[in-house]
Design brief:
The structure is a single chain. The protein is an all-alpha fold. It is 81% helix and 0% strand. It has one domain. It is globular.
Length: 162
């Protein structure tokens, strides 16, 4: 575990953004009453393309920090890969229910998965940093669910325009 602690930032960054963006797509699509096939296509394409973007961005920013002398111990390629993997593995989880369930049941299971993941990310951060686990879990949960609520409301609003 000690060898991976240097990548805590990449894990928190990738996993949090993965779950927020992917579940926000689910929430926005639910608010807009989009069909399940569209939710699945948007979710999977987002996980892969945004995950790639996040990994490359983290690689480039780590490389710049190393070149500036701000980072010495971290490998920029590993940093980018760890961000990408965190984003994809965590981000894909709220999409999986749409492959096995239909309609409202898929949406409810996706919400449950997202809530658990937000809390888990906060818990991991609290454990590694030896900070209050409950506080970190609620912080992560609040941030993630507030993004989903915004997306849901945008989906409702925009769907009424057309």
């Amino acid at each position: 575990m000690k060898q991976y602690e240097q990548f805590l930032g990449e894990f928190i960054y990738g996993a949090t953004d993965g779950i927020i963006t992917t579940f926000s797509i689910v929430a926005g699509a639910a608010g807009g009453d989009l069909v399940q096939k569209v939710i699945t296509i948007l979710g999977i394409s987002n996980v892969l393309s945004d995950g790639y973007s996040m990994g490359v961005s983290r690689y480039l920013s780590s490389k710049a920090e190393i070149e500036q002398g701000l980072l010495k111990e971290k490998n920029a390629i590993q940093s980018g890969i760890f961000t990408f993997i965190s984003f994809v593995f965590v981000g894909v989880l709220p999409i999986l229910p749409f492959f096995f369930y239909k309609g409202e049941q898929a949406k409810k299971i996706s919400l449950g998965i997202a809530i658990i993941l937000f809390a888990m990310i906060g818990t991991i951060k609290g454990l590694v940093l030896k900070q209050p686990i409950l506080g970190k879990s609620f912080e992560s949960l609040f941030i993630g669910l507030s993004a989903a609520i915004i997306s849901y409301l945008v989906g409702v609003f925009v769907s009424k325009l057309h």
